[in-house]
Amino acid sequence: MDKDINEDIKISKxxxxxxxxxxxxxxxxxxxxxxxxxxxxxxxxxxxxxxxxTFLQEQAGPIVLVLxxxxxxxxxx
Length: 77
Prior knowledge:
Layout: H1 2-6, H2 27-48, H3 53-58, H4 60-75
């Protein structure tokens, strides 16, 4: 009876019992913030006179396409 009490009892716990925590990143928030940053930079450039307003009015289509392309590129990562 003494032998039963003195036996070493080992409980093996699998290493993957606790799931690894992933960083919860809101991707839509990142994309929207990038859009706001780009719009803010363009607005700031127009207000300073670095970017003429007529240039933006003439080139609005390509600028929008470039912004959409950048967002798709960022999203593909």
